[in-house]
Amino acid sequence: SAVISQKPSRDICQRGTSLTIQCQVDSQVTMMFWYRQQPGQSLTLIATANQGSEATYESGFVIDKFPISRPNLTFSTLTVSNMSPEDSSIYLCSGYRGVEAFFGQGTRLTVV
Amino acid sequence: RKEVEQDPGPFNVPEGATVAFNCTYSNSASQSFFWYRQDCRKEPKLLMSVYSSGNEDGRFTAQLNRASQYISLLIRDSKLSDSATYLCVVSGGTSYGKLTFGQGTILTVHP
């Protein structure tokens, strides 16, 4: 399976600021996704990152809050905008090749 | 009703024990099924795919019952290193590639 480098691995941010998370895949992947994992919970899909076009968001997630870029088949970013303490969570990117999904190491975000 | 439901546990078993996890899913159009393992503070990693014919990988056996929309994972001869959260994951239907995760089952194997 491919390897995804995700950064930052963790951050502590002030409320009202924004954080951009990056994921770099070591080879091209057909699909990329962004997930959120809140404390003690499982993963929830935020959006599908589409190469060269706007991301497709799941119910409850909007572009203004979580803008996503995917300029090519190996790279994507997720921005958490105007953060509040409720955004404290782990954010994970995922690449999908064939039937296997693999994940970045996650970004542990704390908003204070 | 959650799309994918698992017993969250925790399951606490001694080394060498056999333990079984169950999972149900609500979307009958789902096409792909997986068990992922997530260690503490780590990302999920694929443990095995699940097929209707059942599949086995060493000490791990996965089963799928499409009629009952039920998935299982059996771990034999548990090791300390099996301690982790096991995630039941479903994909497909009208949303190719998107994964829906169960809440996970926590397993602790003790000496």
Tags for this entry?
heterodimer; A: 112 residues; mainly beta; 7-stranded mixed beta sheet; 4-stranded antiparallel beta sheet; globular; B: 111 residues; 5-stranded antiparallel beta sheet
Low-pLDDT runs of 5+ residues of chain A are: none
Query: What does the overall shape of chain B look like?
Result: globular
Helical content of chain A (DSSP H or I, runs of 4+)? under 10%
- Termini of chain B, distance in Å? 37 Å
Overall pLDDT of chain A, averaged? 93
How would you sum up this structure, described in words?
- Chain A is an all-beta fold and 112 residues long.
- Chain A has strands at residues 4-7, 10-13, 19-25, 31-37, 43-49, 56-57, 68-72, 75-80, 89-97, 100-103, 107-111.
- In chain A, the strands form two sheets. In chain A, strands 2, 4, 5, 6, 9, 10 and 11 form a seven-stranded mixed sheet that branches.
- The model of chain A has no long low-confidence stretch (mean pLDDT 93).
- By secondary structure, chain B is mainly β.
- The model of chain B has no long low-confidence stretch (mean pLDDT 92).
- The chains are: A mainly beta (112), B mainly beta (111).
- Chain A binds chain B through residues 1, 30-31, 33, 41-45, 48, 92, 94, 96, 99-106, 108, and chain B through 32, 34, 41-46, 49, 87, 89, 91, 97-104.
Offer a quick outline of the entry.
The complex is a heterodimer of chains A (112) and B (111). Chain A has no helices and eleven strands.
